[in-house]
Amino acid sequence: MEWSQLYPSDVPPTYEMMGAFIDNPLWEELNAYLQKAYAAAPKIVYSGCSGQPGWDVKYQKRGKSLCTLYPMDGFFIALVVIGAKEMVEAELFMPMCGAYTQALFSHAVVCMSQKWLMMHVTDGEVLQDAKRLIALRVRPVN
Q1: CATH code for 3-137?
Q2: pLDDT tens for residues 24-34?
Q3: Which tens digit of pLDDT belongs to each residue from 112-122?
Q4: Cβ pair 69, 3 in contact under 8 A
Q5: Quick check: pTM over 0.85?
Q6: In the chain, domain spans
């Protein structure tokens, strides 16, 4: 069953329920990293967005979005937005990323001077790329 069907807008899941559905240690690794490195608390919110509806987890620091995490069966999607201020640095960083992240970045459409990367975090390489791209947007505090 899909995440959005399992937990409709009137049935909010707990953080533990999300982790159980995803059932992937990379979920805990990224959440622990964001909470420690940025002293940011996860915020569980419901989105009616047609692209990825359902409950997700948002992280923000100093009013800037770090990322949004979308539960999937066996993995999760990390939405990382590369803004105009980070674009040149992100382009320079791309050769150090894995092939998946490079392809995702090169095919992402620039809209309002931003690239929205919906990163399917399925392995450690993608996770590390996501962490580094988030750090381009907001430097870790810890």
Answers
A1: 3.90.1150
A2: 999 999 999 99
A3: 899 999 999 99
A4: no
A5: yes
A6: 3-137
